[in-house]
UniProtKB/TrEMBL annotation:
Protein family: Belongs to the IS21/IS1162 putative ATP-binding protein family.
InterPro entries in the record: AAA+_ATPase, DNAC/IstB-like, IstB, IstB_ATP-bd, P-loop_NTPase
AAA+ ATPase domain mapped to chain residues: 104-236
Name used for this protein in its record: IS21 family transposase ISChy4
Organism encoding this protein: bioreactor metagenome
GO molecular function, one term: ATP binding
Any single GO BP term: DNA replication
Amino acid sequence: MSDATIAVESVRLRMEELGLSFMAAGIESFLGNPRQADESLLDSIRDLVDLEYVARKERTAKTRLKLSGMPQAKHLEDFDLSWLKGGLPTTRFEDLKSLSFIERKENIIFLGPSGVGKTHLMLGLGHRACMSGYSAYYISCRDAIERLLKAREQNRLRRVLTWFKKPHVLLLDEVGHEPLSPEQAHVFFQLVNTRYETGSIVLTSNRPFAKWAEIMSDEAVATAMLDRLLHHAQIFSLKADSYRMKERLRIGTVGFD
């Protein structure tokens, strides 16, 4: 074994001991790359560190995605903005893609009938957030309420609300699909109130705000909830034919005589 081989193995083992597993795995191929001979020492060090940095960043992003609870991967780049008949101009879509609303702790609310792409946009924002270093968590309105009611029965409501406060972005799907009892509306208000000015909510609903008092079974609770939800919010009222119908037409599973 040559002195150079021994030196490389020594460096590899020390990298392993320091927890630099990606650098350790790639050190031999890195040193064998002819391009390194033409680079400065600083550039070579940067490229070596990038072996660890990029791999760790990708691994943590994948972990955030796994923990997000999102039922499927959706990407904003796959959303056909031209299908919409209104509600989401290109400039505002590009601003959403920048994720600047997360730093501002703004809420994003997608309103519109079923099938116009509200959940696609929500999951696309959640995926982009996870890949960009933010934490996100997806849950339907119904499941969130059930979890909160169960926690209250077990005297754990405050703890669960604190947990819901942690993600940078909370993705709340299908708000208003079913009317809520006063008890359900109250715990849902507590959830919204917990995240007020502390983190972003991305929310989808097929009901206009004028109907929320009816949905919540209590006008006072609905008013208080909307007051907090809309204080720092961007609202997108999407107008389109069913996005899902568009996909079926595209692949030929639906036809017309």
